[in-house]
Amino acid sequence: MGGYLPVRNKQEFVLRYGNNEFGNCAPTWVSLSDFLQSDYRGLMHIRNRVAGGPTWYNLSPEDLCRRWGMLIDGGIDPNTLYISAMCPTEKTILQGEVVQSVNHLDLTYSTVVAPMRDALKQSTKFATGIVAVSLLQWAMDGKSYDWLQHLLDNYPGHVVEFTCLSVCWGTVLNCNTLFWEVRLY
């Protein structure tokens, strides 16, 4: 059990996330200049390398550039920010975080169709044990559930944040679940 290095902080997580260590994720760029070199033109999401820091959703590429500039002009260090493609939030069926406790899974989740922070503010539910497993197996395709098991087995004591969609989307083909974060519990 557990052959991988623990994720000690958000900065370390972002580096490892960008290297696809944690399975299916949103296409991600480490900086505005990296994003501008891509040809991606969907909605974007400015994310924060500071745990619990602000995030900005549903930005067009033009809005992303303007917002990024405003943030930097406002004194935010650009090294604390990174960019991800906005997942098709309207296709959300289940999202939240799961952790393997001593005897079972503990799941904190929402079915609200909104970005995860907003969804959990509107409605937070809890499930444990076989109920948590059943919900996860219902919402995740087989490949995604296998990835979740891999993460829980190899990162003991970590929380896994995820979003399950009604469609496959992200950096890994044929997966309906995005893994947003793996962090120490």
Describe the 3D structure.
The protein is α+β, with helices and mostly antiparallel strands. The protein contains six helices and nine strands. The model has no long low-confidence stretch (mean pLDDT 94). The chain folds into two domains: 10-24 and 88-184, no CATH class; 28-85. A hairpin with a 7-residue loop joins β2 and β3 (56-59).
Summary, kept brief:
The protein folds into two domains: 10-24 and 88-184, no CATH class; 28-85. Helices cover 31% and strands 28% of the residues. The chain is built from six helices and nine strands.
Count up the domains: 2
Mean pLDDT: 94
What is the terminal-to-terminal distance?
Answer: 17 Å
Q: Could you describe the largest sheet, including whether it forms a barrel?
A: 5 strands, antiparallel
Number of strands: 9
Shape: globular
Question: How many helical elements?
Answer: 6
Strand-residue proportion = 25-35%
> What Rg, in angstroms, do the CA atoms define?
16 Å
Q: Which structural class do you get from the secondary structure elements?
A: alpha+beta
Topology as a string of helices (H) and strands (E): HEHEEHEEEHEHHEE
Low-confidence stretches: none
Q: Which strands sit side by side, in order, in the main sheet?
A: 7-6-5-8-9
Percent in helix: 25-40%
Record keyword descriptors for this entry.
single chain, alpha+beta, four-stranded antiparallel beta sheet, 6 helices, 9 strands, 28% strand
